[in-house]
Amino acid sequence: MRRVLAVLPAGARRSGEDPDGTPAGERDRVLMEFGRELVRAPHSIPEPLYASLSRQFAPAQRVLLVAFAGLMVATNVANAVGRVPVDPELHRAEDAEPELAMNALESGAE
Predict the structure, then answer these.
(1) Which residues of the chain have pLDDT under 70?
(2) 15-38 residues labelled b (16+ CB within 10 A) or e (exposed)
(3) How far apart are CA 104 and CA 110, in angstroms?
(4) Contact at 8 Å (CB) between 104 and 94?
(5) CB distance 61 to 69 below 8 Å
(6) Do residues 65 and 31 lie in contact, with contact meaning Cβ atoms separated by under 8 Å?
(7) Residue 54: what pLDDT?
(8) Cβ distance 65 to 7 under 8 Å?
(9) Is 45 exposed, middle or buried (0-12, 13-18, 19+ CB in 10 A)?
C-alpha cells in the first residue's frame, strides 16, 4: 500500500483536502483526469492523456495506479451490489457528473 500512496496526488495523501478542488499541479491534474476517464471508458483512454501519464510516471508506477484504480472500481461495484450505504462524508459526491456519481450503477446513468 505504501508504494501506491507514493504515486497518488499530494492532495490525496493529506486529510482535510478537497478532492474536488483545483489540482495542485500538472501531475495531480493528469491523475484526476486519468481516474475520471478510467471510470468513464477504460477501453478508450485518450492517447494525449496516456502520453501525459507516461511522462509523469514510470511503467511500474502506472501499473500500481491502474491496479489501485481497479481495486477502487471493484470496491464501488461490491458496495453498490451489497447496497452498502454511502458514508455521510461522501454525500457531496452526489452532485458529481452523472456517470461518476455514487449511485450511478443504481440509477443507470449514461
Answers:
(1) 1-23, 90-110
(2) eeeeeeeeeeeebbebbbbbbebb
(3) 8
(4) no
(5) no
(6) yes
(7) 94
(8) yes
(9) middle
